[in-house]
Amino acid sequence: MVTKSEEDQLNRLESQVDNGGGGEWEYLCLVRKLKVRRPDKVLKHGLAILNDFKKRSALGTEDWTLCEQVAIAAMDCQCLDVAKDCIKVLRKRFPDSKRVGRLEGMLLEAKGLWAEAEKAYSSFLEDNPFDQVIHKRRVAVAKAQGNISTAIECLNKYLDTFMADNDAWRELAEIYVSLQMYKQAAFCYEELILSQPTNPLYHIAYADVLYTNGGIENLQAAKKYYASAINLTGGKNQRALFGVCLCTSAIGQLSKGRNKDDKESPELQALAVAALEKDYKQGAPDKLPLLTSTLKSLRVSS
Amino acid sequence: MRFGFAIGLFGVVILSHAAYSTVQYRGLLKIMEEEFSGPPLNVVAELLVGLVLCTWAALTVPGKFLSIHPDSEENRIVSLPDNMDFMIFNHRGRVLPSQLDLKLKH
């Protein structure tokens, strides 16, 4: 989970290394810790460190981790020679390592040799059928080839064994959303919220799926989840604020024909609108009239 | 920071002195065969002074306190980590020319 202070630190370090101000190793460690994807920068600065003998020996034993990180970044940037060199160096240093074997499999994937990659991963799984990362790479191979149904099958089988893996649940939810299977996606997001209830982004994603599904109960549940996301982020997440406004107006539209029970208090929408207007006045004051007219049209139609 | 540390040390010394005087006072009471109802007033005053000094030192020596609210400005979660385990290399960046002529020197 990337918190605001960590994001600020990452941006600051990124601008610092881009302008040649040093601190590359710190930046690379932060990227590794936060698990963000910055292949071009990692490749450029990591390779600079690896090629400089003085800086490399200053790292001690950590330079193998850096080698692995640079290899993956090189594969992401399609610089396959650099990746091959890094993996060769790693293989020479760690001849019997599963981790290096996994990198070799990923290199086959990056080259587009899906069958060889699949064969390599299956042989790894024969040795150790409980290797989580290899299972996930197989799903990635299926996804990269475009066999979404195979990917879903593999992922479901993986989740039967390893039910606590949040990344896998998240991946499955995103695949289902891309296929518009919203009920199944909602199930996946429910699992995620159960395991990490204080993460507001899962609440927002779940509320998005419920809102897309439609129907009055789903809309009411979506509104509750947007409200809980506002609670968990201290009101700073604009997506949740907009979500509350949209849900209220959609509920109002759907229940226009019925007699209004009106147990829904209009306070929540009023507060969300006030918070949005304050944020826009601070952040983007020239867009404020656009915002007010949009919100007014939402309120009028409900 | 040094000053806070010194103050803390001084507070601990005062507290241990108060403990020692209470023990001595009890010994005295045993000789005089009276009940021990509580430490004498000056020891109580010494205890309060030691408490204040130690508390002040404990609050200033560790430095800046971090926020523990999950919804505070520093702690709120802004983005999820990119799912690196399921990363695929078959993306649009594949057809972009790699402008950098990079090689690993070995």
From TrEMBL, chain A:
Residues 100-209 form the EMC2 TPR-like domain. PROSITE patterns: TPR. InterPro entries: EMC2-like, TPR-like_helical_dom_sf, TPR_EMC2, TPR_rpt. TPR repeats lie at residues 166-199. One of its GO terms (cellular component) is EMC complex. It is found in: Endoplasmic reticulum membrane. It is a peripheral membrane protein. Part of the endoplasmic reticulum membrane protein complex (EMC) that enables the energy-independent insertion into endoplasmic reticulum membranes of newly synthesized membrane proteins. Component of the ER membrane protein complex (EMC). This is ER membrane protein complex subunit 2. It comes from Rhodamnia argentea.
UniProtKB/TrEMBL annotation, chain B:
It is found in: Endoplasmic reticulum membrane. The chain crosses the membrane at residues 42-61. InterPro entries: MMgT. Keywords: Endoplasmic reticulum, Membrane, Transmembrane, Transmembrane helix. Its main location: endoplasmic reticulum. It comes from the Eukaryota. The keyword Acetylation does not apply. GO terms for molecular function: inorganic cation transmembrane transporter activity. It is a multi-pass membrane protein. It holds the Pfam family MMgT. One of its GO terms (cellular component) is Golgi apparatus. PANTHER family: ER MEMBRANE PROTEIN COMPLEX SUBUNIT 5, PTHR21181. Belongs to the membrane magnesium transporter (TC 1.A.67) family. Component of the ER membrane protein complex (EMC). This is Membrane magnesium transporter.
